[in-house]
Structures are given as C-alpha cells and as structure tokens.
Design a protein that fits this description.
- By secondary structure, the protein is mainly β.
- The chain contains 1 helix and 11 strands, in the order E-E-E-E-E-E-H-E-E-E-E-E.
- The protein has one helix at about 110-120; strands at about 10-15, 20-30, 30-40, 45, 60-65, 65-75, 125-130, 135-150, 155-160, 175-180, 185-190.
- The strands form 2 sheets. Strands 5-6-7-8-9-10-11 form a 7-stranded antiparallel beta sheet. It has a 4-stranded antiparallel beta sheet with strand order 1-2-3-4, with no helix packed on it.
- Strand 8 (about 135-150) and strand 9 (about 155-160) form a beta hairpin.
Length: about 190
C-alpha cells in the first residue's frame, strides 16, 4: 500500500522513460513538492521541499531514468512586491490615428506593478535533481518558459521570457530567448 499525506492534492504526473517510476507533485499550503513512486516495490519518496515553480508551464521533466530537471523558486526570492498607493504617472496608450480591428485578451498586464508581480512569480532556477534527492543548479534565476531535454538526455532546450513586456498581448507572445545547454548547464547554442 502506498502512503501519502492525508487528502493529497496530486498533479503533474509523469512516467519515467523506462516506465519504472512515476514523478508527481503534491500541493502543500506553501507550494509544490516533487515526489517519486517506484513501481517495482510501490514505494514513494519526497524529492524536494515545496519549492517547485509551476507559475508558468511545466515545473519538471524527466532528463533520464534517474534524474529530473526542475524549475525551482529561487532561494533568495524575498517577499512579493507590494503596490504603492500613489501612482507613478499616467498610463498612456496610443493608436496613432489608425482605425483597425484589434483582438482583445483577458488577464493582461496592466501596469508596472503587474510587471513586477509577473517577474516575481515566474522567476525560477533550473536544477537537476536525482532520485536520491541530490540537486545541482543548471541556470541561475530567470523567467523560464520551457526546459525540454533532448531524447538522448545530453542537451536541454531552454526558452526564457524577456522584456519588454506588453500590455496588449498575453505572455505567450512576449519576447523569447531560445538556447541549448548541455546537461551540466553550459550554453552550447543560441537559436
């Protein structure tokens, strides 16, 4: 029998490449923990404290059958930004006199405070974690959109979100930097 904490909130379930292990997240009051289930003996193990960052995209992926790559909340992140009561100035948007239809989106950034919150919650480090729980940092804190390992586990495709942020389109359309690192964090190629 598998023992989990009472009333578990499980998410992001992923099988290892050899189908012998299942990784999943467990939502706690303070964040997401990473857990592993070994199929052979039906044992579970917690791999991380509640520090996985799932604010944008997938918080982890299997690198190989013994290692995962994870987006973790930066250890020195500090407190969330607070909104000032005094506006810093007017919010100006221009259309330059051209009339044309435009798409409308919900939940867009509206001001500098939204930008600060966006950066605060999406900034994460990319780290390798073994099924024994050993962690090693691959890239320093940044706005990671995706981190996808190559099929042979030797390389990782990284996509990061960069400024300037837009108040007109959703985050999926913000500027990106796409590059490849090896499985030790050394940048190999920028796309």
């Amino acid at each position: 029998e598998i023992e989990l904490p009472e009333n578990p909130r499980i998410g992001f379930v992923k099988w290892s490449n050899d189908s012998q292990k299942v990784a999943f997240t467990l939502t706690q009051d303070t964040g997401l923990e990473l857990w592993i289930l070994r199929i052979a003996d039906a044992t579970i193990q917690r791999l991380s404290e509640p520090v996985l960052n799932a604010a944008y995209g997938t918080p982890y992926r299997w690198l190989d059958n013994e290692t995962l790559i994870c987006k973790f909340v930066s250890q020195n992140r500090g407190q969330a930004p607070t909104e000032t009561k005094v506006p810093t100035g007017p919010l100006i948007q221009e259309n330059n006199g051209i009339k044309k239809p435009t798409r409308t989106y919900t939940n867009l950034l509206k001001n500098a405070f939204d930008e600060a919150l966006f950066e605060y919650y999406l900034t994460s480090t990319l780290e390798k974690i073994t099924i024994e729980g050993n962690r090693s940092q691959l890239i320093s804190p940044t706005l990671i959109s995706e981190a996808i390992p190559s099929p042979d586990s030797n390389f990782i495709l990284i996509s990061t979100i960069n400024k300037p942020f837009s108040y007109q389109v959703p985050a999926a359309r913000f500027p990106r930097k796409i590059y490849i690192i090896d499985n030790n964090g050394k940048e190999i190629y920028q796309v």
